[in-house]
Each structure stands twice: as structure tokens, then as C-alpha cells.
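Recall the central idea of this unit: under ordinary conditions, the amino acid sequence of a chain determines the structure it adopts. In this exercise we apply that idea directly, starting from the sequence alone.
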Amino acid sequence: MVAGGEVPGRARPVGGAARDSGGGRAPAASPGLPASVRVGYGLGSLCTGTFATVPGLLLLYYLTNVMAVPAAAAGVALFLPKAWDVLINPVVGALSDRSRFRGGPRRPFLLAGACTLPPLFALIFAAPPLRGMAAAGYAALLFLLAATAYAVFQVPYVTMPAEMTDDTEERGRVLGWRVAFLGSAILLSGAVAPAIAHAGGRDVPSGYRLMGLAVAALLAAGMFGAWFATRRAPVVTRSTAEPSLRGQLAAARGNRPFLHLAGMWTAQALAVGVMLAGVQYFATYVLGSAGAVTPLFACMIGPLALVMPLWNRLARSRGVKSAQFWASSLFLTAAAALVATPWAGPWTAYGAVAAVGVAYGGLQLLPLRMLADNLAADAARTGRRRAATFTGLWTAAETLAFALGAGAFAAVLAVTGFRSSEAGHQAAQPGSALTGITLGMSLLPAALAAVSLWLLHRYEEHPAGAPSAPGAGPREGGHDRTDTPEDETDRAE
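Accordingly, the structure predicted from this sequence is:
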């Protein structure tokens, strides 16, 4: 759940990743990739991290507080394009898998996305002379087009490491650069974009226009950089398209532990999505400064790189499920503590959000390790390697959860009587709306974290009766294990 939309270290298989295959002898390892290819490929995550972060952080607030869009309409304008993302990904994946372009099966799609997403993103925040429902329609249309352009880039992009090399160590090095650029993009865009938008301390269209252009430039740098740098990347294998999302759902019904695990992941992604959509409102109306969103976001994302090794160590010593329990419990407690901010003061908010950031590091890492174990157990039980099927559902669930997160916070605003306003004329909010913002930022994500804990309790780490898969090796604690894409993630870290 790295700020909505990309699972680090794994090619996204929703409608277009490699088809699951059975076992067999692995081919000889391919030669190492040039450093320029490894680093240049990672540049693409400047796009994926930024586009996953900035709209979720600012777009809802921009619509309600600059473009005078009613909260309910603004929520719909954000939800529909992200729901479309789930449908368009299989189409892009299948087209990419079947392409026979001279530039390779993936890079022409990277170029098409690079040419279209940056200008579309800038147009979303161009603040045309429209207000109310007309502005909502404009934003929804541009956001849908931008989401389509993003899919054209992102789906082939995350498939490339598996096709550039068949050596797992080399693939781990490639993914290491991707994870590094991803974290940098989330922190940079999440901190700088609000600072540009609120320069001067007011919500005015010019600030958002400048922010849109700056973010578009960052997107273009990452996308064109990845396209150009991978021109020397070999293609050592080709993928074939997955049949359909319906086929993936049918396969998942036979893996009940996966259903509980994916449900837990969805609930916590929804909780994070709600907080991401609400943090700008919380800064403006509860802390009293629109600019406070930058330190709040830094408190939440800053600890990620520092605490991930600690969560990894806890998982090794106490078990992954136990570590996930403590990460979710810390998230629940810290989110609930935010409800005291109106009485306890802003430092309570900063401390609670920093604790959320510590928990968030575990919530990013530990579910992926549990997914790896579940994939190994499924392979042992069925004798089939179906990682693409289950990770496809995993990323689809995450995409929908982040879309619903913004919609859920918009629904809270609408129900509690939030008054939308035009730039330069901030409407006075009733007490019910201020209470709704506080509760939407605190108790709502805490409740969703409680749901994720219940689903975690029902998750079986190692279902009884699973036979050993051919070629499986020993797992920590004595259980059998087969290599999964997450092993490459661990090596990348």
C-alpha cells in the first residue's frame, strides 16, 4: 500500500502479468544489467509514487475549497476514475502482452504514458472558470483521462523486471532502485506539493496551477527517464495475458486464508486512504493552518525507511502475524488519539501522526510477507504456482480501497454539513462539520483498523493439511516454502 497503488517488488498482474506456470528447471541466469538500466528503470517510480500520492492528498480539498464543489459530488469525481483504473488495467496489460512493436513490448507504452499523463495532470489543477457541478464534471473527466494514461505507463512498467532478467539477485537489485525512488517520490511530492499549493497562506487557483505544473514536470522526468534508460534493457522472456478478473476471483474462492488476508489489506488501505484524504482538512480546520499539512505528512511518511528494518526484526523473532497485530494495534491507537487534538493541542496531533507513521511502516511491509507465505502454501497445497492470479486481486483491492477512502471522507463531510467554498472566500463551517473532520481523521480509520485486526485474527498462516510442493525448501519455523516474488523484495530491501 505504498500511498495507494503499487506493491513494491512485484509486477502488477491485473490483466497483463505473466501467466502462472508450473514448476520446472529454471533457465540459466542472464548476464547482469548495466547500472544505467537499473537506476534508470527506478526513475519510473517518481511517477508511480507521485501520482498515487498527490491526488489523494489534495484533489478532494481543491474541489471543495477552491472550486466550490459540494462534498458528495467531489467524492464521486474522485471515486469513479479510480474504479475505472481497475477495469482499464486488464485491457492495457493484454495489449502490452500481445504487442509486437519494434521498441519492445513495453517501452512504447511507457512513451505513450509519458507524453500524455503530465499535461493531463496539470490540466486537472488548472482551475478553469467553472464552479460547482460543472467543475466536478471537468475534474472527473480529466482525472479519468489521467488515470488511463497512468495505466498505460504503470502496468507495462511493473512487468519489465521479470522480462529484463531471469536472475533473482539481479532482479532484486533492479527492484531495490524502484523501492528507493518510490519512497523518495512519496515523501517529496507529499511534502512539496501542498507547500506550493498553499504558498502565501491562501487557497487560490494560482497556487494550485503552479503545483500542477511542478508535479507534471516531476512526472515527466521520471517517465521519460525510465523510457530512455531502458532502451538498452534486454528482453529475456515474454509474458502472456491472464484470462480475466473473473477467472482470478474464481481461483481466490478456493483459498480462504487469502480472502481473509486480502480483506485485512483492503481494510487497512481504506483506513490509510481516509486519512490521506482528510489530512488537508484536519490541518486547515483543526490545526488552523493549511500549511500544517506538510509537517503532518512528513511525520507520517518520514519514519518509513527507519522503522521497516525494525518491523522485519520483530517479524523474524515473533512471527509475521504477531508483528502485523502490533503494527495494526499501534495504528488503531494512534489514529484514535487524534480525536483529542481540539482539546489537547497541535503537538498531540503531530505525535499521534508520527506514531501512525511508525505503524504504517509495518503495514506496508508485513502484509506482503504474509502474502508470500500464503502463495507458498497455496503452491504446496495445489501443486500450481498462481502468484499472478492472487497478486492481481491484491492490487485491484488496494486500488478500490484508496478510491473508497476519498469517497468515505467526502461522505463524512457531506453528512456533517461541510460548506464548500470558492477560492478567496472560505465559508464558515458549522460545529458539526468541524467535528466530522476530526472524527473522519481519527475514529473512522481506527474503526477500519479494528476490522483489519478481526480479519487478521481469522487468517491462518499455515493451513493444516497442505502437502509439500515439489522443490519446496525449509521455511522459518519448519514449514515448507517455495520462492515467491516477495523473496526478491526482501533482497531488494
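The domain at 35-485 is CATH 1.20.1250.20 (Growth Hormone; Chain: A;).
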